[in-house]
Amino acid sequence: MSAQHPPITDDLAELYVEHNTWLQGWLRRRVGDTFTAADLAQDTFLSLLDRKTAAVEIRKPRPFLATVAGRLLAHRHRRQLLETAYLEALACLPEEVAPSPEAQLMAVESLQQIDRVLDGLPPKVREAFLLAHLVELSYAEIAKRLGTSTSSVKQYLTRANRECMFALAV
Amino acid sequence: MASNRDTLILPSGRVISRTTADAAADWLTLLMSGEAGDEQQRQWQQWRQAHVDHEAAWQHVESVTGRMKSLERAPAYAALSSYGASDRPSSPARRRATRMLLWGGLATGAGLLASHTGTWQPTLADCRSGTGEQRNFTLEDGTRLTLNTDSAVDLRFDTNQRRIVLVAGEIMVATGHGPGLTDPRPLWVATAEGSIRSLGTRFTVRQHAERTSVAVLESAVEVSPWSGSGSARLLHAGERTQFSRNAVEAPRPADEHADAWARGQLVADEQRLDDFLAELGRYRPGVLRVDPHIAGLRISGVFPLADTDRILATLPSVLPVRVQWRTRFWATVVPAE
Q: Which run of H or E residues covers position B303?
């Protein structure tokens, strides 16, 4: 994310005025809820502030807005899936070790970040990374689980650590 | 994090080369494998010291792994891994089944976790010592930290607290005294079972399997097990105790030689031979056994830890025993003929 936002341009304001209602309708049909649709439309326009493409260069505004909004929708969906899975699993832990709601929120953000950087890696590479870092299995144990050799696991980890360690902020 | 193909920018703003970043990631891969020997660990340290960028890259790797460690790991794994499964088109019921299956599989993982932490956590720890080694460190606040044999600690110092995480083994902590060394931040030692808060003092802490023992040499500490709410206990100079996650035992008089190891000595005072050899075994690699028939013999003396073979060699001169050597690393103490 850039440190400083460019000023809101007239072009963007125009785009907003002309297409906001349409975009909210488009989103409402997908999420089925007016407030969420309004929030997502807002986020869509805000995300354009970070882009280098000037709004004036957008030839077909509606398909473009739909693409951006669709991506935000997918992010939101992923986050909800992650959050649900995390909270379900958390419920299996004894009460005294459960993290505070604040810590849970931070954890979900961390999960989202890890999920994002692992996206695009082959499933076995992703799984090897998770088993090594989160379950702390030995490479031999990971190999057994993935039905592969220890040297393959080492290669998976080499790739995953190279691609992910520096894509994760702290 | 902004980056192009050849360089990337760390959150601190430092620009490092992709080569350096890859090298740091590769060190992590090696250290996590648990296969890094002393020579490779030395090379890793040398690499870190070779360039300020190397150290910065490594610090980044450590803070990222630290952040992952701070997650509730089993649920985090369940979420991230089952997400991959639910990403493919499948019914909600099937998704749930997959998730539970992975979660069930994790129980084995959690069991392995306990045995596995011993291998790679100490490798990545901030300060560590090898078998038979005692090492001294002076921390940024002037606190002196001594690690006994085969021990590891992580240091978590920030603006609010000074936390020493005992990952394995035994340490002695002597907090800084004198002008410029009075630090207002509380000093804690955290173990698997609880925390020990220093009240301006010198004390030893040892991590055993599923319990922690503490001995106070000067001043006092406060001991709080993680799960025993309201069971915190004050421990004064000349006292020792041990605690589990739930409870602290009543304090007992400390052994006056509780810190003898920090001076390189093993001190026994009418100690059972099996207990003595169990202690001695901490300081040497390999197997050290004792014949049950002589396990109850008593031994007294002050022995130099620098040469544990010599301690074994002197045993027949003080007790009716002899030492059988199967290999250099496998010794059994048996009755003298």
A: strand B298-304
CB A83 within 8 A of CB A108: yes
Could A118 and B80 be called an inter-chain contact, meaning their C-beta atoms sit closer than 8 Å?
Answer: yes
Please spell the DSSP secondary structure of A72-95, one letter per residue: HHHHHHHHHHHHHHHHHHHTTS-G
Same domain, B234 and B276: no
Class of residue B230 by CB neighbours under 10 A (exposed 0-12, middle 13-18, buried 19+): exposed
* Distance of alpha carbon B114 from alpha carbon A46, whole angstroms: 47
Residue B229 tokens, joined = 């709410």
Instruction: Give Cβ neighbours of residue A147 (< 8 Å, ≥ 6 apart).
Output: none
State the Cα–Cα distance between residues B129 and B207, nearest whole angstrom.
14
For B207, the enclosing helix (H) or strand (E) is: strand B202-208
A contact test, residue of B4, B72, B108 with most A CBs within 10 A? B72
**Domain residue spans in chain A?**
10-86, 96-164
Measured between CA atoms, how close is B48 to chain A, in angstroms? Answer: 17
Query: How many structural domains is chain B composed of?
Result: 4
Dist. CA A143–CA B15, nearest whole Å? 36
Judge if B133 and B21 occupy the same domain.
Answer: no
pTM of the prediction? 0.46
Q: Which CATH code for domain A96-164?
A: 1.10.10.10
A165/B21 touch (CB, cutoff 8 Å), yes or no: yes
pLDDT, tens only, B18-33: 999 999 999 999 988 8
Is B269 inside a domain boundary? Answer: yes
Contact in structure between A153 and A130 (CB atoms under 8 Å):
no
ipTM: 0.71
Structure confidence at residue B110 (pLDDT): 32
Residues of chain B found within 8 Å of residue A115, distances taken between Cβ atoms: 80, 83
* CA distance, residue A95 to nearest chain B CA (Å): 11
Instruction: State whether B178 and B240 are in the same domain.
Output: yes
Residue B1 falls inside a structural domain: no
